[in-house]
Amino acid sequence: MSRRFPYAALGAAALISLAACQPPGPAGQTERFRIPAGASFGQVMDTLDAHGLLANRTLFRWRARLAGADRAVQAGTYEAVRGMSAGDLLQLLAEGRERQLRFTVPEGLTIADVADLAEQSLGVPADSIIAASRDTSFGDSLRSRDGSVEGFLHPDTYLLPEGVKANEVVQRMVAEFEQRWQPEWTARRDSLKMSLRDVVTLASIVEGEARVDDERPIIAGVYHNRLRIGMALQADPTVQYAIQLATGERKKRLYEKDYKTESPYNTYLYPGLPPGPVNSPGSASIQATLYPADVPYLYFVARPDGRHVFSATYQEHLRAIRAVRR
């Protein structure tokens, strides 16, 4: 009898699997459901049954017990197709293959921008993202004077589980920044006598100004030249950031009065780097900041096509402005 038992068990499992893989309702229809943490297997079956994913509760339970899957279900939000086999369904729940949401964060966004985007794309409240960005567990080198990780939320496309929490989003983006940081960048940063925050701050300004990749090192070179001679950076992205901090709104176009905005971030009023990054720069802007072009320029003005005219003297710059306006 003992020799025949494995074969009998296998046969029973096969019959149970076949019987349990034909749920009622239209086959091929996708069902989305959530398994809460701490749910019993009976509650799991209630959820599956309510979505028309089970043909027979008793047979499904026995199939799960034979495979040990009734003790392996993980919490999460899932998508399953009606008509999938009991084995595939149990494997889905045991592996925790949750439904993934695509979260694309472009370069140059502030934390406030990322928060709004997370609320739209992930359903995560914007306020909770902003609060999570001030988590004190992040090191001082990754935090600005206001305690946030502005500048260190790496722009990228992320696949995140539905129901992801704000702190998980922020931690994932900061971890991506740290992973993308190249070891040779640290040595280069030290040779420039710049802190990590200094590099990211200047890179965020480059990110805010550049529209084409081949100009990033040139723009970075201009700002390095200004810093070297003690000239004010006079960077529009810093004024835009100062206004966003004060009003919650980001202005795409600046007027003369905007340049008088009182803020330590306003580099028209205060020389040197601002207190911290003014957006999240991409790797290309960080690279350009660390390896700027060796250029004689101190000025540049944007053309209508997004490229810039660079000048070494103020008189050349004024002529370039007149030419662009024409």
Structural commentary:
There is one protein chain. The chain has 326 residues and is mainly alpha-helical. It folds into 3 domains: 5-95, Endolytic murein transglycosylase (Dna Ligase, domain 1), CATH 3.30.1490.480; 100-180, no CATH class; 185-295, no CATH class. Helix content is 46%, strand content 9%. A two-stranded antiparallel sheet has the order 1-2. The longest helix has 16 residues, at 5-20. It is elongated. Mean pLDDT is 88; it is low at 1-24.
Give a quick precis of the structure.
This protein has 326 residues and is mainly alpha-helical.
What is the topological layout?
Elements: H1 5-20, E1 30-35, H2 41-50, H3 57-67, E2 76-81, H4 86-95, E3 100-104, H5 111-122, H6 126-132, E4 157-161, H7 166-180, H8 183-191, H9 196-209, H10 216-229, H11 236-247, H12 283-290, E5 299-302, E6 308-311, H13 314-325
Antiparallel strand pairs: 1-2, 3-4, 5-6
